[in-house]
From TrEMBL:
GO terms for biological process: regulation of DNA-templated transcription. PANTHER family: TRANSCRIPTIONAL REGULATOR REDD-RELATED. InterPro entries: AfsR-DnrI-RedD_regulator, Sig_transdc_resp-reg_C-effctor, WH-like_DNA-bd_sf. This is Uncharacterized protein. It comes from the Bacteria. GO terms for molecular function: DNA binding.
């Protein structure tokens, strides 16, 4: 089983089998960070996140190219299509992150999410990143008052 670990807290990083990955495209990297939080996505969701407001036909082509580049960078299929629209993380891949560790084990978190990671011309990605920051702040407050990380996420 292949193992991918994605770090989204503080300075982001992607590791495959313990080795640091430097994706070919910045959008590929952004997609991996997004997948660390959302293991099931739609093609339209990715298009909106990475190419908001652009021609849909062109965006579909961009997405196909992005998924091809992702496969090239990783050397295997991380995402599989369960229908024409929905993609999920391949169940044969151990895909984990510091985010999931935080939720499951209450591991500590401090600082920023995706610190210094900027995706130009993708305001929706930046909005998602800022929303995650707010959610994490809420989770930390709830945990400090005796709640659970998963419970805080649901809010």
């Amino acid at each position: 089983m292949r193992r991918i670990f994605v770090k989204i807290f503080e300075t982001p990083e992607i590791r495959i089998e313990g080795n640091k990955l430097n994706p070919t495209l910045r959008r590929t990297e952004a997609l991996l960070y997004y997948l660390a939080v959302n293991k099931r996505v739609t093609r339209n969701e990715i298009i909106e996140l990475l190419w908001e407001g652009q021609d849909v036909k062109k965006c579909r082509k961009n997405l196909r190219n992005l998924l091809y580049k992702l496969k090239q960078d990783l050397g295997f299929d991380l995402l599989i299509s369960i229908n024409r629209e929905t993609l999920i993380v391949n169940p044969d891949v151990d895909f984990s992150s510091d985010y999931t560790e935080f939720l499951k084990e209450g591991k500590s978190y401090s600082g920023n999410i995706l610190k210094n990671f900027i995706l130009k011309r993708s305001p929706k990605f930046q909005e998602w990143k800022e929303k995650m920051e707010v959610q994490m702040s809420s989770k930390i407050k709830e945990l400090s008052s005796g709640g659970s990380a998963e419970g805080a996420l649901a809010n």
